[in-house]
Write a structure and sequence with these properties.
CATH class: Alpha Beta
Bound molecules: glycinamide ribonucleotide
Helix content: 25-40%
Distance between the termini: 25 Å
Oligomer: single chain
Number of domains: 1
CATH superfamily: Formyl transferase, N-terminal domain
């Protein structure tokens, strides 16, 4: 929980490049969008390390293509979740990471990890939270019959997709939508709002009070 007003989190000087660590498990299209925004100058950040828990993740090829250092941490190579997290934290710290970006990273974040990066882990979720948290947010929306869904960028807290919300974007759910067609529509919005949320953090424009995120100006 967030007890009091945490004054403007982020990097102090606008000119600083915020050092990101990006965690992926699969396709990595959100990571690609972050790379594209960095390369076209609209996101003042640098990806110091990409970490995948899946050796087959297509996102690894994307990192390679852009000469971004990456490592693979397989759950099976660790005795337990704690050991995995110790290695994850060390890899991020060794690379000077200031903000951790969960980009389709399909693991629950442990309290140890949260403590190592307090208010410095962001996640994107393919639904308008608090609706449809957890897995398959798009399928849940189609099955429930909502008329509007979307995506959410939020700070990560100890719950599953429960942290304070930074940005949301809505899309219509059409009568003939399948999980796949809705996911594609939502993904386009994800690619816009995630870089925007990261830039707000980089500019020191975010503050959190209780459940609410305030955006300066
Ligand atoms: C995205 O739709 C992201 O919102 C979702 O996984 C996909 C990853 O796509 N994340 C979650 O469902 C987390 N609960 P990507 O690998 O192409 O960025």
């Amino acid at each position: 929980m967030y007890a009091g007003l945490i004054p403007f989190i982020g990097v102090k000087k606008m000119s600083d490049l915020l050092k990101l660590g990006v965690l992926i498990s699969g396709n990595g299209s959100n990571m690609q969008s972050i790379i594209d925004h960095i390369e076209n100058g609209s996101l003042k950040a640098v990806i110091k390390i990409v970490i995948s828990n899946n050796p087959e993740a297509y996102g690894i090829s994307r990192a390679k293509k852009h000469n971004i250092p990456f490592i693979v941490l397989k759950s099976n190579d660790f005795k337990n979740k704690e050991d995995f997290d110790v290695k994850l934290i060390k890899s991020l710290k060794d690379n000077g990471v200031e903000l951790v970006i969960l980009a389709g990273f399909m693991r629950i974040i442990s309290p140890t990890f949260l403590k190592a990066f307090p208010q410095k882990i962001l996640n994107i979720h393919p639904a308008l939270l608090p609706s449809f948290p957890g897995l398959h947010g798009q399928r849940q929306a189609v099955e429930y019959g909502v008329k509007v869904s979307g995506c959410t960028v939020h700070f990560v807290d100890e719950g599953v997709d429960t942290g304070p919300i930074i940005i949301q974007s809505a899309v219509p759910v059409l009568d003939d939508d399948t999980e796949e067609t809705l996911a594609a529509r939502i993904l386009k919005e994800e690619h816009k709002i995630y870089p925007r949320a990261i830039q707000l953090f980089a500019d020191g424009k975010l503050s959190v009070k209780g459940r609410k995120v305030f955006i300066k100006n």
